[in-house]
Amino acid sequence: MKSPQKKQFVFVMATLLMIVSTVSAYPKDPENAALLYYQAFLSFPKDHDQISLDAVVNGTEDPNEAVRTYIAKCQTSIKLALAAAALETCDWGMRYSEGFDAIMAHLGQMRSLSRVLATQGQIFIHDGQIREGLRYFLVMRKMAYHTGDNLIISYLVRVSIKTMADQCLRQILSHRSLDLETLTWLKQQLVTGPDLPGNINRALKIEEEIAVGQMSVGKDRLVAMLIRDNPDLSVDHLARLKSVGEPFYAANRAYYQQQMQRMFELLDSSDSYAQKHQGFVQLIQQVQADSQQKEEAVLTGLLMPALQRLVTVQTKAFTEENVLRNGLELFIIKARTGAFPDRLPSTAPLDQFSGKAFQYSKSNKGFTLKCQAEDLDKKAVHEYAFMAQ
Questions:
Q1: C-beta separation of 327 from 344 below 8 A
Q2: Which residue among 198, 222, 243 closes a domain?
Q3: Higher pLDDT, 92 or 225
Q4: C-alpha dist (Å) from residue 59 to 54, 66, 169, 376, 385
Q5: Cα-based angle 37, 39, 41 (whole degrees, multiple of 5)
Q6: Of the residues 305, 326, 342, the one at which a domain ends
Q7: What does the alpha-carbon distance between residue 321 and residue 190 come to, in Å, rounded to a whole number?
Q8: Is 2 a member of any domain?
């Protein structure tokens, strides 16, 4: 017969075993999307650089057997990308303390992974699985968001991935007859999706902090970086940079911060795109002139980005977001009424190049949305044609 002490021991052990059995025996899945994206990159087929997907992504060619075979090999990467895009947090673990030397290899990989997802989406569309295909282009928009806007280069890659996804969506709207339910669902997905394209200000602010830090790390490292990034740097420039001391760097830091402050004031102003673009052109011209004449402007002349091009990239990205939303709304109206409207709705989002409504024209083939001001870098007025099926 068991003693009371032994009975108590058995009872306690049984209770502990019951508690342990209810606790998960394995760790949670990652909550940081970057960890899943990195696994997706590592899971690419070995021949992932040897097949062109562009024609299928652009919708100019149907997916052939070679493309389908390749995408079948990419299913592990695709599955990981879908899991990553379902998460909110994405921290790439970049060493920002390395300044402009920080490794950003994930950016090129994100573009490649996005192209794979776009191809899978087009395969679903071609095979008649419309909503499943659309879901892949929406996942690409989340991937664009996850790419980040901490640095100028990451912002530019974010915009490029978003542009790829949106071109696919516009192409599907034009070449597939989507029913009202699907169109309404797509509109809701865009409304509740990530805030895109985002603002360039954050990237510029972080790069300002990095540049100021680079002007403080010691001239040997700074000169090595400038030689790497400016292969045409003159011998006179190099000699000046190697011979100066801390007063030179302190003066350059102050000048750089003054010019960046001017830049942020212009970015945050209510000026039109054309006014901002011209303001940035003048600012860069002034900095370049100063860098030839003033010691305190030398480093700013080498480190300040091409601001007028950045404001064009951002303006075009917001414009194309509005093109997609306008186009979708017009297709919804057609699905409800049987015809495209004679004019844009009064609430239609605007062309960001002009700050005005898009110039809208319809025909028996579809409709066109045209900007009312020129892209001052490309010297062209953008227009976007949608076809009706």
A1: no
A2: 198
A3: 92
A4: 8, 16, 10, 29, 15
A5: 70
A6: 305
A7: 10
A8: no
Q: In whole angstroms, what is the distance from residue 355 CA to residue 324 CA?
A: 17
Give per-residue pLDDT as tens, 29-61.
Answer: 999 999 999 999 999 998 766 788 999 999 999
Nearest to residue 255, comparing CAs of 225, 221, 299?
A: 299
388 Cβ neighbours under 8 A, 6+ residues apart: 174, 334, 340, 365, 366, 367
Answer yes or no: pTM beyond 0.90. no
Shared domain check, 214 and 141: no
Cβ contact 356:371 at 8 Å: no
Average pLDDT, the chain: 89
Q: Which one has a higher pLDDT value, 249 or 111?
A: 111
Q: Are residues 194 and 166 in the same domain?
A: yes
Task: Give the residue numbers spanning the domain of 36.
Answer: 30-198
Looking at the chain, which runs of residues are DSSP E strands?
A: 359-363, 366-370, 383-387
- Strands ordered across the beta sheet of 359-363: 359-363, 366-370, 383-387
